[in-house]
Design a protein that fits this description.
The protein has twelve helices and four strands; from the N terminus they run ββααααααααβαβααα. The radius of gyration is 22 Å and the shape is globular. About 30% of the residues lie in helices and about 5% in strands. Helix 8 packs across helix 11. By secondary structure, it is mainly α. Bound molecules: heme C (2 copies). One heme C binds next to helix 10.
Length: about 350
């Protein structure tokens, strides 16, 4: 990962201007916050940004594109329509995504978190590069329903984009590669690593007794798939939702019957915020998710071997402890970070 640049965006905390406040006042402080970094205890990122190092101008261009409905056919939908910051960049309250003309997709919008550690995207891993992935939502008829060539045409006519491209890449020429690389830079910087769970790991906070008991249960029943510290092992598995698969999941990509009903293990970071749950948003509370693992696991032919003995034994008291632990995964800094918001 040596080529990934560690960038520092100066955040200026401006003094409160009371009548006598001069610009030379010592109260003006500069705090350096990294834009892309590897949090303590995290593994190495996927490496997909090696030829596309994050720059302040590239990140800013990516953010502008992410929030701009110009990427959609009728200028009504932007990436954040379905990936809202307050919902950890998922679409809160919608079981299936809503795109242009309020058309329904077939899957739930996943949270966008720590994507620089992923090398495959979507519930079925249908895209294998972070720089290619945005083509899917831009061109999907039920998402943004636009073409890349028309996006380039519209951006060329805008008064702001040519200069933003010059800042990012040294040339006014707007290319699809420039668009995709900027979006990849922005999304790679959506790093969440400051939840209470992280602070406990780093020795800066302590779990309550209930949270700690929940963590113990979590480690014995959940981390084989929701692996620490990303809280996903990034593999595809069947966690026992169905006997027959309306959505074949991973098998849509590999065409292997043995992959039917397998989906990418989702991260559980910020999980309280990113409801509803599962690839089709079928469960609207975490309480129902735990109830699934303790009472409705379906033993189909592709069930994950670790669940082959069926329902987990989880008492009501243990369920409450697990829920308390899951709520420590919320990272308020991530959902309020102004650098990730529409500017
Ligand atoms: C209409 C809603 C909608 C819009 C608009 C949308 N997305 Fe998504 N996004 C989804 C859904 C649904 C999925 C899951 C798709 C699947 O698994 O087949 C998804 C998946 C993703 C993923 C994969 C995450 C993972 O963990 O694998 C990324 C990255 C992403 N979107 C980025 C974007 C970007 C960038 C844009 C704008 C160019 C965008 N999305 C626009 C609904 C949307
Ligand atoms: C065998 C692997 C496996 C185990 C063990 C497992 N999960 Fe999952 N989990 C998954 C998969 C795969 C999905 C996505 C399934 C889908 O949408 O079809 C998922 C989805 C979830 C979701 C929904 C996430 C979202 O963004 O929609 C939650 C919450 C969850 N699991 C919590 C847990 C908890 C808590 C435990 C332990 C009690 C646990 N899981 C054990 C594989 C597993």
């Amino acid at each position: 990962m040596s080529k990934i640049h560690f960038l520092y965006l100066p955040i200026v905390i401006v003094c409160v201007f009371i009548s006598s406040c001069e610009k030379s006042d010592k109260e003006i402080k500069e705090v350096a916050l990294p834009l892309f970094y590897i949090p303590d205890g995290f593994p190495n990122p996927s490496g997909q940004l090696q030829n596309n190092p994050v720059t302040t101008a590239g990140f800013a261009l990516g953010r502008k594109l992410f929030y701009d409905p110009i990427l959609s056919k009728d200028s009504t939908v932007n990436c954040s329509t379905c990936h809202q910051q307050f919902g950890s960049f998922s679409q809160v309250d919608h079981s299936l995504s809503h795109g242009v003309n309020n058309l329904l997709g077939t899957r739930n919008s996943p949270a966008l978190i720590n994507l620089a550690w992923h090398s495959e995207f979507f519930w079925d891993g249908g895209s294998n590069h972070i720089e290619v992935q945005p083509i899917a939502p831009i061109t999907n008829p039920v998402e943004m329903h636009e073409t890349l060539s028309n996006v380039i045409y519209k951006l060329n006519r805008s008064s702001t984009y040519p200069s933003l491209f010059r800042s990012a890449y040294g040339s006014d020429t707007i290319t699809s590669q420039g668009i995709l690389r900027a979006l990849a830079q922005f999304m790679s910087c959506l790093i969440s690593a400051n939840s209470k769970y992280d602070q406990v790991r780093n020795g800066k906070a302590f779990f309550t007794a209930t949270e700690d008991s929940g963590y113990t249960i979590f480690k014995s029943k959940c981390t084989s798939c929701h692996k620490e510290p990303l809280l996903t092992d990034l593999t595809y598995r069947n966690n026992g939702l169905d006997a027959h698969f309306a959505d074949a999941g991973r098998a849509r990509i590999t065409t292997l019957a043995t992959d039917s009903g397998k989906f990418k293990v989702p991260t559980l970071r910020n999980i309280v915020l990113s409801y509803p749950y599962m690839h089709d948003g079928r469960l609207n509370t975490l309480s129902k998710v735990i109830d699934h693992y303790r009472s409705t696991i379906v033993l189909s032919s592709t069930i994950d071997p670790s669940l082959s003995s069926g329902n987990m034994s989880i008492t009501d008291a243990e369920k409450a402890q697990l829920l308390a632990f899951l709520s420590t995964l919320t990272d308020q800094t991530f959902i309020t970070d102004k650098r990730f918001s529409a500017q």
